Amino acid sequence: MTKVADGLLARRSLWWVGVLVVLILVPLVITGATFTTIAVYCLMYMGIATAWNSFSGFSGYVSLGHAVFFGVGAYTMALVSTHLNMSGGLSMFALLPLAGLVAAIIAIPYGYIALRTRRHTFVVITIAFFFIFQLLAFNLNFTGGSAGVVLPNGQFSASDYNNPFYYACLIVLVLTVAVTIGIRRSRFGLQLFAIRDDEDRARSLGVKVSRVKIISFMISAIPVAMMGAVWAFFIGQIYPQFAFNPALDVTIALMAFLGGFGTIAGPLLGALVLEALQRYLNLYLANADLYLVIYGVLFLIVISFLPEGILPSVGGRLRRRRLRADASSSVVSGEPST
């Protein structure tokens, strides 16, 4: 049994390494600006969806307020870089940890208030927090209000301008996936799953429920803010309605549910499919909002035929098929099935 488990772990590790190698080589092999722009956004949303899922998917608390952290990260990058008169080179990426730190600090009181509630009430409170932060961005003087903030121009070569942003997103994504895998395999992850299954029972078994939820909420905020910071530098100018965009929360939730809520690879697949599809349709459809209709149809198809998400549903069907095949072979050979 141990050898089988070790072999499975080795194959999974090899698969992850192979995917990472492919992602590293992608912008070096396909250098078109349109493709690399789409690739930057795909990696960005893959990281955001994974971070969101590390809290919502593992704890069962569906948050529709993580766009707060994206906006906080974007404004941290914008305000600090302009205040320090930064040149717009690679040194700008040194602000990513600061953006994550600011979001983590904000996540503590945010989580302390929101996580005192459950289920639908929690969802409503996260939405309320989001609109509070959006209104603050519109009305505070230091955020620039509705005029937004202009960031330093990226001092990169025109031929491969997108590559620094691509690799910055890739680094954040890899760290996010690594942390998520670590959480899932740790005692802390088991506590989160216990909360998801039955919070009252988890508390009675000695789980420090409030502390575990707030720590998980805080951890999930960091990558989202870092991706927000990359986004702000990438587009060069931010406005409150785009930095704090309510569509972001719905989108990342849809990505996680599409790929497989509570899994590791599910949000990655969901984000890759949906974000690439959206960017492609925006480029080639006359009606830029038609992708929302396609999103809805795709979501209905998945809910109807793959209710647990793509990866869990497909994986479950493959396991059932393999069990039936094993049972059939046992009957043919005359051996008792196990």
Descriptive overview:
- By secondary structure, the chain is mainly alpha-helical.
- The protein is built from 14 helices and 2 strands, in the order H-H-H-H-H-E-H-H-H-H-E-H-H-H-H-H.
- A two-stranded antiparallel sheet has the order 1-2.
- The longest helix has 28 residues, at about 1-30.
Chain-wise SSE layout:
Blueprint: H1 2-29, H2 33-59, H3 67-83, H4 96-114, H5 119-139, E1 149-150, H6 163-185, H7 187-197, H8 199-204, H9 209-235, E2 237-238, H10 240-243, H11 246-259, H12 265-284, H13 290-305, H14 310-333
Antiparallel strand pairs: 1-2
Helix pairs in contact: 1-6, 2-6, 2-9, 2-11, 2-12, 3-4, 3-9, 4-9, 6-7, 6-9, 7-9, 11-12, 12-13
State the gist of this model.
The protein is 76% helix and 1% strand. The protein is an all-alpha fold. α2 (33-59) runs parallel beside α6 (163-185), α3 runs antiparallel to α4 (96-114) and α6 crosses α7 (187-197).
Keywords:
338 residues; mainly alpha; two-stranded antiparallel sheet; 1% strand
- Choose one word for the global shape: globular
Strand order of the largest sheet: 1-2
Give the tally of β-strands.
2
Strand content: under 5%
Structural class call reads mainly alpha
Mean pLDDT: 89
Helix content: over 70%
| Contiguous runs where pLDDT drops below 50 for at least 5 residues | none
How far from one another are the termini?
Answer: 15 Å
The sequence of SSEs as H and E is HHHHHEHHHHEHHHHH
The helix count comes to: 14
* Spatial extent as radius of gyration: 22 Å
Q: How many strands, which pairing sense, and closed or not: the largest β-sheet? A: 2 strands, antiparallel
